[in-house]
Specification:
heterotrimer; A mainly alpha (317); B alpha/beta (267); C mainly alpha (295); A: 317 residues; mainly alpha; MetI-like fold; 2 domains; two-stranded antiparallel sheet; 14 helices; 2 strands; 79% helix; 1% strand; flat; C: 295 residues; 10 helices; 72% helix
Chain lengths: 317, 267, 295
């Protein structure tokens, strides 16, 4: 009887010891708190940056309308840009931006899709070994270098070809074409590679030629991916500043044709923001241009999401 | 077509007070989201014995095992009580890292760290405050000997663990676990990715290790269970149907579902 | 017959397209290198720039580019690492996480000129730090963070779950497992990403024009005290980088040999970026071999 009692007591003491040991905070628990703290802090910084960026640019960008009482419609549809005289029609820049963006995408897409087909369907081996590095190098070339080559090669070439100064939308289009080409190509390659192999095999087994297979089966099922690629390319073109600014001529006038100097939102911003005084109408007007850029970037982002969602639905069906 | 068996008819053994137990679960339930994966698991594990958990895939045996050292935290919801040294360790306030130090685990696929053999063993020890070189060296040797790997690697302790064969890697994982000086060792189908010769080596290692540790091993290989375990629990679709000494279970299963599984009609 | 003919035509067209894409790249490289390299000399690489015309050497600009790059990486790598670990390890699959991911995506898709303008607004206009190395480095960090974070998250997530389980089952904390076990395995991918992003940062100009500024005051390379105004390490001095220099010489430069100058500077820039790309590949595969111990 006594012995059992003694044993029970001993057991109680042991249980108590284990109870403390298993509930005690250790180095590992502390590490986890610290690690959690650090990583939450870092993600917090990024969120803060994004939020303040959206906030600052928006609040600066709407000052034209709230403080200087310019009507939004006049800003968007006005064709005269002379902020120091109070004329702030942004249409020339808006048109310029859209013109170079669409033109570059239209020229680049066939090249990008063709290259992507070559890399995935015609010669995957050479594609990986040779074209992949080519594409990566094209991505890696800094935009000022593109701008410089545009200035040194394309502008004089256009001058020879059609006369005038050589600056203009068409020169900008050429430069942007080369700049968005790698973006569109590499994303198109990804989406072509994602097409299930058996689609292709089934088509070839039915006696279709390679081109029939590519055009009717592979490209069709990769449509949403290719569209996403093109939009990414357009977003890059829309936001590109220096390369465009160097070759477009920077005349804030309505583009009459493709070969006379024009300007884009980004080119106007880069040229102008340093010469204006904070808080004045000319400065606020430039921030409004920046706000359009920001909104367009958000719009491209949303568009990509919508397409991705649609694409998913189609595959599920 | 799988027959319907009654979950009411079970034969789960219990132990009297004289049997020293390492762990015990009481009414353990596991849910993956809304999916109830494990029902009312009541099992007790005698000290210094090997207990095998058998059953077809999807029977909940791995889920049960992973809940014992709280490896299911953040993956599944586990309710009920898990008794370990008189403490319910399935509680929010419990230090899960401390539990895992005492209840080690070896996984289905060998998963050595991408480090040297020595570093594989030493890394967690150092993180736990053991810094002395000779102490670490001693632990490396002891644990590798314990896992029957010492003779094969003693001259190459600085070689990458990934250069070892699959069987050697798995024994290194066992060594890594026992270097922490746990008292329970959980093994989740440790031999399913190994060839027969490596399997024999791991089994011999386990038989040797039960002198010092309590071992709970999930296996779908019934021969393996009968070769090494003293107790055997049979899982079926999330229910523990039968728990008995291994000899009894294989020679004289008590209920129809166990009989059918052991005779090979499903699983 | 018709289908076969179509197939042939399509193949030829695609071959022509590919040839022209390759041709464009070779033309670009050949042009830059042939126009620029003859003007690259030791005195060009180390010499000072004429402040008025922009002519002369690119010594200070080259130093500024590297200095900004180092500072940017010092700030952005730790933050992206923490954020990447958050996304790979701590983030739960819920609306908050998807909001965070969208925010990162938005940041990565913002034009660099917008990022630069934000930096200008914040540091130059609001905090009155002026055009400075530090303003430029932080603007470049904004531009670098989302891509680096995503790269680190992807590299960490690509490491097998079983490695995490191994660490956790030994009683290691999540944090220790992530830093000590997962990070070394993910290192090849992370290092490749970091070096590639270094190439992008090195060539970036739009984000810097109004943050690090467009002037390269002569600095005293014998003075390494970061507090001295003339010291090259002083983070509060304006710092025109090589990429900004190319832009500036081309748009408002008065140098008579602007074309040759910028060709030479472009050649140097391109070579630097090529070296970063090559370095990323070599370093990545070297680390990969070390980590996996494969031959």
């Amino acid at each position: 009887m006594e012995q059992t009692n003694f044993q029970l007591k001993k057991q109680d003491a042991q249980t108590h010891e284990w109870d403390t040991r298993l509930h005690h905070a250790t180095k590992a628990t502390r590490e986890d708190w610290i690690g959690r703290g650090i990583s939450y802090f870092c993600i917090g910084i990024i969120i803060l940056v994004v939020a303040s960026m959206l906030w600052f640019i928006t609040s600066k960008g709407i000052a034209t309308f709230t403080q200087n009482h310019v009507s939004l419609w006049k800003f968007l549809s006005g064709t005269d840009w002379a902020p120091d005289q109070g004329k702030i029609g942004a249409l020339p820049m808006i048109l310029g931006s859209f013109a170079v963006t669409f033109a570059a995408a239209i020229v680049a897409t066939p090249f990008a899709v063709g290259t992507a087909i070559f890399m995935t369907e015609i010669s995957p081996n050479r594609g990986r070994k040779f074209l992949q590095p080519v594409i990566e190098l094209l991505v890696g070339i800094p935009s000022v270098v593109y701008g410089f080559i545009g200035l040194a090669v394309i502008v004089p070439f256009m001058r020879h070809l059609v006369g005038g100064s050589g600056f203009g939308i068409i020169s900008a289009t050429f430069v942007l074409f080369v700049m968005v080409l790698p973006t569109i190509t590499s994303m198109t390659v990804d989406s072509l590679r994602a097409v299930p192999r058996y689609y292709k095999e089934a088509s070839l087994a039915l006696g279709a030629t390679r081109w029939q297979t590519v055009s009717r089966v592979i490209l069709r099922s990769a449509t949403s991916g290719i569209l996403t690629a093109v939009i990414f390319g357009m977003a890059r073109a829309f936001g590109e500043a220096l390369a465009v600014q160097m070759v477009i001529g920077n005349a804030a006038v309505m583009p009459k044709n493709l070969i006379s100097p024009a300007s884009t939102l980004t080119s106007q911003l880069t040229t102008g923001i340093g010469d204006t005084i904070d808080g004045t109408l000319p400065n606020n007007a430039l921030w409004s241009l920046a706000l359009i850029l920001l909104l367009m970037s958000l719009f491209f982002n949303a568009l990509v999401r919508v397409i991705a969602k649609r694409g998913q639905l189609k595959h599920e069906r | 077509m799988l027959k319907e068996y009654s979950y009411e008819e079970t034969a789960v053994q219990t132990f009297d007070d004289k049997m020293p137990l390492a762990m015990r679960t009481e009414n353990m339930q596991v849910f993956y989201g809304n999916n109830h994966a494990l029902f009312d698991a009541n099992l007790a594990f005698p000290k210094n014995q090997i207990t095998a958990l058998i059953g077809a895939s999807g029977s909940g045996k791995s889920t049960y095992l992973r809940s014992l050292n709280r490896m299911n935290d953040g993956i599944a919801t586990v309710t009920g009580r898990i008794w370990y040294h008189g403490v319910n360790v399935n509680e929010p306030g419990v230090n899960i890292y401390e539990i895992r130090r005492h209840i080690g685990m070896v996984f289905q696929r060998p998963n050595p760290f991408a480090k040297s053999i020595r570093e594989n063993i030493v890394y967690a020890l150092r993180a736990n405050g053991i810094k002395k070189k000779d102490e670490l060296a001693k632990r490396v040797e002891q644990s590798l000997k314990g896992a029957a790997l010492w003779d094969e690697v003693k001259d190459n302790l600085d070689k990458s663990a990934l250069s070892l064969s699959g069987g050697q890697q798995q024994r290194l994982c066992i060594a890594r676990s026992i270097a922490m000086a746990p008292d329970v060792l959980l093994l989740d189908e440790p031999c399913s990715a190994l060839d027969p010769i490596s399997t024999v080596k791991v089994e011999e290692t386990l038989l040797e290790l039960q002198k010092k540790y309590t071992i709970i091993i999930v296996t779908h290989n019934m021969q393996q269970a009968s070769r090494i375990s003293s107790q055997c629990a049979f899982f079926h679709l999330g229910h523990i149907m039968e728990y008995a000494p291994t000899g009894t279970m294989f020679s004289n299963p008590q209920i129809p579902v166990t009989q059918d599984y052991i005779s090979g009609s499903f699983g | 017959m018709n289908a076969k003919r179509m197939d042939l035509i399509a193949t030829i067209v695609i071959d022509l397209i590919v040839a022209s894409v390759v041709g464009i790249l070779f033309f670009l490289l050949a042009y830059i290198l042939s126009a620029g390299l003859p003007h690259v000399s030791w005195s060009f690489l180390t010499g000072a720039t004429d402040a008025f015309s922009g002519a002369g050497g690119i010594g200070v600009q080259l130093f500024n580019s590297f200095y900004l790059l180092v500072l940017t990486m010092l700030i952005s790598v730790p933050i992206s690492l923490g954020a990447g670990i958050y996304l790979a390890e701590y983030a739960k699959d819920n609306w908050r996480t998807s909001l965070i991911r969208s925010a990162i995506e938005v940041l990565s898709s913002l034009p660099s000129v917008v990022v630069g303008l934000f930096g200008f607004l914040l540091f130059v206009v609001k905090f009155k730090i002026g055009f400075s190395v530090i303003s430029g480095a932080i603007a470049l960090t904004f531009f670098n963070l989302p891509l680096l974070t995503r790269n680190i998250e992807e590299s960490l997530s690509a490491v097998s779950r079983s490695q995490r389980e191994a660490g956790l089952s030994l009683g290691l904390s999540k944090w220790k497992t992530e830093l000590g076990i997962i990070l070394p395995v993910a290192l090849p991918g992370i290092v490749t990403g970091i070096v590639l992003s270094a190439g992008r940062v090195f060539g970036e100009a739009a984000a810097l024009i109004y943050t690090a500024g467009q002037s390269a005051p002569v600095t005293n390379f014998a003075d390494w005290n970061p507090m001295d105004p003339a010291s090259p390490l002083n983070p509060f001095r304006p710092a025109e980088t090589l990429a900004v220099h190319i832009w500036k010489v081309n748009t408002e430069g008065l140098a008579s040999n602007a074309a040759a100058l910028s060709a030479a500077a472009s050649a140097v820039l391109i070579i630097a970026v090529l070296l970063f790309n090559l370095g990323a590949r070599l370093l990545g595969s070297y680390l990969y071999r070390r980590v996996t111990a494969s031959k």
